[in-house]
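G.,

No rush on this.
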Amino acid sequence: MSLTNSSDEEPLKDSAGNFLTRKLNRERHGVGQKSIKRAVEKYGGNIEQQYDKETCLFHTSILF
């Protein structure tokens, strides 16, 4: 599965390299990314995420 999303700003990352939400109420946002990552890993898949500064596109690839 491949997903692409536009973003004018480069995504924030934590010290472990995980992407963080820019929304104000962080306790209620960003949960989806973590849930997807856990599910992919649980079923032996691989998730790759990257941001392309030139095209301002955020890419997510999930492989099983």
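When you get to it, here's the other one too:
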Amino acid sequence: MDPALLTAGRRAAAEAGRITRKVVGDGIRAQGLTVSNDRIPEILQALRTDRPPPQHR
């Protein structure tokens, strides 16, 4: 998992006050990063549990 994506997702969620697919995906993209839709659930899970997701791919 790219730490920059987690940081951007965490920032977006904090600013919006909630963790949702749209908030995190749009927030990451607004910060100039690229994220595919199939990675967003993995990022959401990491943000909700606040620990790195399993490394795969």
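The chain has a mean pLDDT of 89. The helical segments are 3-16, 21-30, 40-49.

Enjoy the weekend,
O.
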